Amino acid sequence: MTDPCLLLDQSVEVIATEVRSGRVSARALVLEVLARAESRDHSVNAITRLLKERALHEAAAVDATVAAGSDPGPLAGVPYGVKDLFDVAGLSTTAGAGFRHDAEPATRDSAAIGRLRGAGAVLVATLNMDEFAYGFATINATWGKTRNPCDPDRLAGGSSGGSAAAVAAAILPFALGSDTNGSIRIPASLCGVWGLKPTHGTLPMEGVFPFVDSLDDIGPFTRSARDLALIRAILSGESSDRGGSPKFRVARLGGWFARDVTPPLLEAIEVFAAAVGNVEEVLLTNAARARSAAFLMTAAEGGARHLPELRRRALAFDSATRDRLIAGAAFPVAAYHDAVAFRERFRAEVQRLFDSFDVLIAPTVPGIAPLIDEPVIEVGGKEVAARSGLGLYTQPISFVGLPVVAAPVAKHRGMPLGVQLIGASGNDASLLAFAVDLERRGLLGVGVPQP
Amino acid sequence: MSELDISLSAEESYSLPPSRLDIAEFVELALAMGMPPECAAGVADTWWGLVEHWALLRGTGSA
User: Fold this and answer.
1) Which of B3, B16, B22, B52 to mutate: most A Cβ within 10 Å?
2) Please, are residues A230 and A17 in contact by the beta-carbon 8 Å criterion?
3) Would you call B27 an interface residue with chain A, using a CB distance cutoff of 8 Å?
4) Among partner residues A291, A314, A340, which is closest to B14 by beta-carbon distance?
5) Active site residue A110
6) Who's near A37: CB < 8 A, 6+ residues apart?
7) β partners of residue A416
8) Is A329–B21 a contact, with Cβ atoms under 8 angstroms apart?
9) Rounded CA separation A215/A294 (Å)
10) pLDDT value, residue A73
11) Cβ distance of A301 and B16 shorter than 8 Å
12) Res. A449: pLDDT tops 70
């Protein structure tokens, strides 16, 4: 039999292979995750709820399928967690808001959880986040701060910080999060794991607590690019064909995306680009405008969505969330119209780049994770709050719905540094094939053992 | 940076939910709920931050 403790550190693919072969049970893996949560989560605070009973029930179904000689699916027995905004049947969907702890329980699982269950995965936990996904820090007034597993004095990033931290701490082999302005890419980068923000609207949002409909997407966190591709394929309903060794035309975003980058990350990107080869620098001249438009769109749609609840019980909100939502709801609607109009023009500017290139490289955040006690970053020579400022390089990209793989590129003083690999709209599968190829060549990744 | 025409054309659509808050209503709401002064300060900070973003978007501000 395979040792579930050793197995849990392997890739999702390897874990599922062992379960499908009967060499380890799904139940043993759930018990190992529960033990790890007990021993590791106190220093990370990634988990909001452990779903022991449900997980053991799902694991028993997987084990019974294997025992009957059938195949539970490509994620057989693989334990995972979800950001606390996915509907889980029988539980209140808190979306990170303390006052929603007693909200009417979901009557069914979100569509994404349903697809993962259909592939044999086992849901074990819900994971911490910024309230209503409005932040880049995972500093939650009710469930506390999620700490970076690489250094507990530093931020895990957000708003899907619990998802990134649980995977980085090897409590879970993969997790789901959501990304509106960078909420998958930023914590993935700060915690040193892989994350995918898909082409807008391509992964199922049914049963996911919304924030900004124009920008919201869900996606996975993993410890390998291959796992990222596998889980995206399952969530999207596509085949997981990863192709061979594709040739890609690659460029590196300069200008806005080179401003404020810390020297260690700048150097890491230069080394990476040189290893990829033939990478020229290109500009998105309206990136700063796109970021501003994303802020305006987020404030307007988020404010409008939460206004009925703000009118009813504004003081129940986390103050950092409440103040921004109220300001967004009160802001002139003309600004929103301008943001919407600008988006089409910016989309055309971006598309022109993809006429010449297949993949764009950009930093995810300016450097390593900020300290929790000093949650600021330097932008334009001024200190700004990390909670709102870390989306410097992510917001212009998600503003036009592009697919992005967030990848670990290097470490500085033991802390991860990350890059964004940006693809053309709808090219998620080939973008992931590019990432898998770079991982195979040892240019990106966290060093998880590969099959 | 080139100036972009960001006016909304007739063909362009948007879908902001109709529910909006005006400042007078907010003041009334704040008073009724006994909101602390720091809340008003937080709202104002964000509001002015959005003004800066709007100016930048329209090409009259700087990043």
Assistant:
1) B16
2) no
3) no
4) A340
5) no
6) A47, A50, A124, A125, A171
7) A411
8) yes
9) 9
10) 98
11) yes
12) no
Q: Is B34 on the interface with A (CB under 8 A)?
A: yes
d(CA A373, CA A21): 47
Based on the residue annotation, tell me whether A160 is a catalytic residue of this protein: no
pLDDT of residue B3: 39
Type of residue numbered A154:
R
Phi, psi dihedrals of residue A264, rounded to the nearest 5°: -60, -40
User: What are the φ/ψ torsions at residue A376 (nearest 5 degrees)?
Assistant: -135, 155
**Residues A337-375 pLDDT 10s:** 999 999 999 999 999 999 999 999 999 999 999 999 999
Read off the tokens for A291: 């970021």
Residue A145, min C-alpha distance to chain B (Å): 21
* DSSP sequence for A140-203: ETTTEEPEETTEEEEE--SSSHHHHHHHHTTSSSEEEEEESSSTTHHHHHHHT-EEEEPSTT-S
Q: Pairing mode, if any, of strands A174-179 and A382-385? A: unpaired
Percent of chain A with pLDDT over 90: 88
Mean pLDDT of A112-140: 98
The CA distance from A192 to A338, in Å, is 36
Q: Catalytic residue among A11, A25, A110, A159, which?
A: A159
pLDDT, residue A247, reads 84
What is the token pair recorded at A16? 């599922």
Q: Is B31 within 8 Å of chain A by CB?
A: no
A171-210 pLDDT tens trace: 999 999 999 999 999 999 999 999 999 999 999 999 999 9
Q: CA-CA distances (angstroms) from residue B8 to A106, A254, A315, A335, B5? A: 39, 30, 36, 11, 9
Whether B16 and A342 have beta carbons less than 8 Å apart is answered as no
- Nearest CA-CA partner of A263 in A188, A363, A182: A363
3-state SS, A385-405, equals EHHHHCCCCCHHHHCCCCCEE
- Predicted-complex ipTM score: 0.92
Which amino acid is present at A386? A
Q: What is the pLDDT of residue A259?
A: 95
A210 DSSP assignment: -
A375-403 per-position pLDDT tens digit: 999 888 889 988 888 999 999 999 999 99
Tokens representing residue A85 in the block: 């905004």
User: CA A113 → CA A148, A272, A379, A437, B51, distances in Å?
Assistant: 26, 35, 38, 28, 40
